[in-house]
Amino acid sequence: IDPRATELLGLPWEFLYDSRQGEFLALGKNTPVLRYVPLPTPQEPLKVELPLHVLVVFANPADRPVPGAQEEKRRIIKALQPLRKQGLVEFEVVEGKDTFATLRSKLRQAEVHVLHFIGHGAFDKDAGEGMLMFEDEAGVSRPATAEQLKTVIGDEPSVRLVVLNACEGAGLAMTDAFTGVAMALVQSGIPAVMAMQFEITGPAAVLFSSEFYRALA
After folding, report:
1. Residue 80: DSSP 8-state
2. Cα separation of 146 and 121, whole Å?
3. From its phi and psi, is residue 68 left (phi > 0), alpha (psi between -120 and 50) or beta?
């Protein structure tokens, strides 16, 4: 879709329904719904040398707790354990206070191939910008805007995939396709971003993470 046609980008294409077959297209293995935004430079292949390095960022601020977040974290770790035992995957969990600063530090210290965020996301319609909620030094909400995330994550050449398991991580303004967090990260050069365009339930987020990493394994 042309990024200038933002009224089309904002539509929930995942709900496309084939009345002849009686099924949603996105649920078929041969008809996945993928969003691609044309960029001036081609994306590099997603190949990496094993082991695959996964960094799970877990933000659960005291003033805005994330429903089902602990269970989601547990399922991700469980799904990755078989690959870790085979030496194919290494993963680390970042959590606790001042998570945004810790994320910056981890990205500087070592290569990260997959960055998985568990927490709250939001889209400020007045400012026209998406954001993710981290924890500050006191353990309460600390928003990081799409522009800030683009600066911190988009500059890391090792990152191949960002998974935003948060509400409205792919939300966008109707005037600019790149104002949402997911779009901003794609614009910065991240090859692939998985994000939620609308609000999701805690159980749905847990199920998504579990199934995604089972498939990866």
Report:
1. H
2. 10
3. left
What's the rounded Cα separation, in Å, for the pair 170 and 153? 16
CA gyration radius for the chain?
17
- In this predicted structure, what is the pLDDT of residue 197? 72
Question: pLDDT tens digits for 131-143?
Answer: 899 999 999 999 9
Amino acid at 38: P
State the number of CA atoms in the 13 A half-sphere of 170 facing the CB.
Answer: 24
What token pair was written down for 127? Answer: 């400012």
Tokens representing residue 70 in the block: 């602990």
Element holding 90 (H helix, E strand): strand 89-95
How far apart CA 19 and CA 59 sit, in angstroms, is 41
Which residue do the tokens 């910056």 mark? 104
User: pTM (2 decimals)?
Assistant: 0.82
Average pLDDT, the chain: 81
HSE-up (13 A, CA, CB side) for residue 112: 29
- Work out whether strand 161-165 and strand 192-195 pair parallel, antiparallel, or are unpaired: parallel
